[in-house]
Amino acid sequence: MRKDYFRDYYTFVTKKDKQKLEEVLSSQSGDYESCPFCLGSEKLNPVEITRITKGSHWQVRVFPNPNPLTAEVKEEPKSPWKHEKTESYEEIIVDTPNHFQRTHQLEIGELKILLGVIKERVKEVRGKDKVEYVSVFQNCGFWSGATDRHSHFQLVAFAKTPPKIKEKIHQSSHGSCVYCHIVSQEENSPRKVLENNSFLAFCPWAPEQTHELWIAPKKHLRNLNDLSDRDMLALAEIFKGSLEAVNRICDDYSVIFNIGPEGENFHFHIEIFPYYNERYYGNLKIREGYYFVTNTPEQSAKIYRGEA
Ligand SMILES: [Zn+2]
Ligand SMILES: [Zn+2]
């Protein structure tokens, strides 16, 4: 990976197959003849890490990512700038055997099982040599950059903690936790979308993207290992409710699990970024660290709550 001129930011020059736009569009439109994630296509991903079965078939299936994001093109750059060889490791977690089912359509019990699989995979992968951070995310729909329509999550293990996570560790662990404070304030705000005994879902005060939604535990829980069985059920419930709300307004979104790295003080949370404006307002993005949204987070929360 290449390091930024002076900031602690990095760029991978990936050799991930560049799919043609037509291929991506045909996958997104439901051409599932050759979908490698479908029930019956297991032979296309022969090395299986784990599976959870339900009745006569699998419900969740995990295998190494055959087309990893972090596999870099070989290069020997001769330049004064920093280039590091990095080791990474990637898995695909397919959350449904059904090509057309989306995560929010799973039953609460199935979602709890999925979250349990994510928890176990993160725990095992972070125990591997040279793994400092395990990222788990889901991209849905064309505008998220997803190349497969079939619902799945991705796990990527990095040898270094990414810069945004370092910032989040700092916010969670220096003095009193910023996230504990945010949750206690947003619990009674017009930005609240959903809550249960353990979790709050809300639209953040200053979102980066229109209709951005966060899910955070009310208690200071560092990672999925800190969650009791009851908390896992509560997370499955609020995750389903939040994804249902997002799916009502937008098919394209990314879900990011911010999970505390081993030994770090952290406040676990999930961020959901809908690509609501992408196709119309791509020009709302500037890169200097200012963001533009077309709805206030209070309006977004109202829409999510079904009141607007
Ligand atoms: Zn499929
Ligand atoms: Zn906290």
Overview of the molecule:
- It is a single chain.
- By secondary structure, this protein is an alpha+beta fold.
- It has a single domain (2-304), classed as HIT-like (HIT family, subunit A).
- The protein has seven helices and twelve strands.
- A ten-stranded antiparallel sheet has the order 3-4-5-7-6-11-12-10-9-8, with helices on both faces.
- A hairpin with a 6-residue loop joins β1 and β2 (10-11).
- α2 packs across α5 (229-249).
- The radius of gyration is 19 Å and the shape is globular.
- The mean pLDDT is 90.
- The structure holds zinc ion (ZN) (2 copies).
Keywords:
12 strands; binds zinc ion; ten-stranded antiparallel beta sheet; HIT family, subunit A; two-stranded antiparallel ribbon; alpha+beta; 7 helices; 308 residues
Provide a short characterization of the protein structure.
By secondary structure, this protein is α+β, with helices and mostly antiparallel strands. 26% of the residues lie in helices and 21% in strands.
**Cα distance spanning the termini:** 45 Å
Strand order of the largest sheet: 3-4-5-7-6-11-12-10-9-8
Seen as an oligomer or otherwise, the chain set is: single chain
Q: What compounds are bound to the protein?
A: zinc ion
Low-confidence stretches: none
Indicate the proportion of strand residues.
15-25%
Determine the CATH topology: HIT family, subunit A
Helix content: 25-40%
The H-level CATH homologous superfamily, spelled out, is: HIT-like
CATH class: Alpha Beta
Radius of gyration: 19 Å
